[in-house]
Amino acid sequence: MLLTLLQRTGRGLFAAAERALDRCFGPRWNPLYHLGALGFFFFWVVTVSGLYLYAVFDTSIFGAYQSVEWLTHEQWYLGGVMRSLHRYGSDALVVTVITHLSREFFYDRHRGFRWFSWISGVPLLWLMFSSGINGYWLVWDRLAQYIAVDTAEWMDWLPIFGQSMAANFLNQAALSDRFFSLLVFLHIGIPLMLLLGMWIHIQRIGGARVNPPRGLMWGTAALLLGLSLAWPALSQGEANLDRLITDIGLDWFYLAIYPLMDRWSYGGVWWLLLGLTALLFVLPWLPRRRPVPAAVVHLDNCNGCARCHVDCPYNAIDMAPRSDGSPYAEEAVVDPALCAGCGICVGACPTATPFRRATALVAGVELPQLTTADLRARLGELARGLRGQARVLVFGCDHGPDLAAVAGDGVGGLRLPCIAMLPPSFIDYAISRGLADGVLLTGCRAGNCHFRLGIEWTEDRLAGRRDPHLRERVPRERLATLWVGAEGTAELERGLVSFRQRLAALPPYRPGSLPQTQEVLDDTA
Amino acid sequence: MTLLEWRPEYSVGVEAVDHEHRQLIDLINRLHQELGADATRAGVVEFLAEIHARIAAHFALEERLMRAHRYDGYAEHKADHERLLDELRDIMDRYELAGEYSDAALAQALGTWFEVHFREQDARLHRRLSGAGR
Questions:
Q1: DSSP summary character for residue A216
Q2: What's the confidence (pLDDT) of residue A512?
Q3: B21 vs A: CB within 8 A
Q4: I need a surface site. Which of A139, A314, A432, A472 has the fewest CB within 10 A?
Q5: Is the pTM above the cut of 0.95?
Q6: A365-366 and A296-297 as β-strands: parallel, antiparallel, unpaired?
Q7: Is A29 a member of any domain?
Q8: CATH number, position A46
Q9: CA-CA distance, A24 to A16, in Å (whole number)?
Q10: Pick from A256, A285, A314: which residue ends a domain?
């Protein structure tokens, strides 16, 4: 299908750009991995600079231009900089938002359980563009005049206004302070609605990041400031409705539709924008994603410890009062409508440990399509098939490198929906029981986890920063991670070769040798 | 003969936690009895793994409560939890793989740990939780 082809092409372009930026900034500061947070950051830059401008701005139509001119030239070091930050911050917001939504679309992260985040983003586009266009009027220069007249006539095309809006801009004498005050009021009201919309937009994102990492934030701020000092934003001569606008410099990020209005027709632009909006609204169902079975809580194995609730990247697990009469206060409850089926909750559950035998292995929370008992059975099967020295079990994910391509005599691959579905005790189990000589975890490219937090939580659990963590007793030289993404199969192959060389050079592993080390220490003391 | 016995002074005053403490004591006693009655090696391994999983889950819940109450002894208490889980894992490995195991060692490890942990850590937690109105 056309959309699939488009997505594949776009994904390729983004992946290339991301890898290039990874080389410059590293995954932690790569702006393409923080577009949402950058959007919030630019919003705040515009808000703060806007508050300053509002304090100095003369809200009357005949004082507006002069007050902005004074600000720009007399007070260039503060007011001028603020004006430029306001302008460039807004432009950066548009670039960030458009990149953000394109990226989510190309990576196919707009369908299924993600529909809400996508749909709630569409009205934000209208709010963002109208705030920006609205702002250009307030300067009341020749550009403002151009868009004021065009916007008024564009609005008049709609049969909903009783009074002609363009009548306000017929000539200098028709201008009224009241109408101008309304515009100023709108320039506060619309951004407030935008902020409310942004808040709604992130409701289904667990622990949404609304601040970029500090390094990226300061770097971006410095860039905006540099731009503001080097090329300050300027007005284009005072508006005069008695004169016709012929040539004008445009801010293409916000005002691209105006030349189109002149060339096309007002009706045509309306149909274009409404059509695009409608397309965005239906996109999550083009085609509808096959629903993934949601995680299921097993109360016999849930004591309400809330680790799954804390680790869920999509707020799909809530803690609710106990329903089975047991003495526990709470239990985990999965909302199937919000569940991504990533299994990160399973990886967080303390009872999801493969060592259990006395009772059937059922964790407190399970994915129906791949239970922990299945996982243990597959692991055992896979391990039995491994031959030779330096046997490696590779755990990967549905969005990472191709595990079948790297499997062989000494290498077995096991694919999970997300790498963070793997409870760390499985690694302990595989190594201590001699199922393999080493374990390699792979998955999405670092910074680009398909389920947002899979790599981060996995790294944290391995390093002991997050529970359940990989016990210290597990020999780290027998563990490797490689975050290379779907396009990284060759890289995984190379990584496996060097990992197996490393493993082959190690002395045979004897588990449970920790207390012996302690005895040795005691003897030498 | 039971190895461990629940005592009212073990209570931390939170029903769920006390309930799990009792369950754990039961589980450990059952293991102890099983060992006395010539248990199979596989049976013991099963029990140990079950105890390990239950204790891990229990600690997860207890730690959640401690964090919710901003318990000041959290770090120390958690370190004690981790120490026990590590010891238990060592016993599991030694039994399963090296065949090196003694009832006395297990009894000592678990018995002592629980006694001390209940007396020192959980009692302190109890005072704190009841002080906080729970």
A1: H
A2: 55
A3: no
A4: A472
A5: no
A6: antiparallel
A7: no
A8: 1.20.810.10
A9: 13
A10: A285
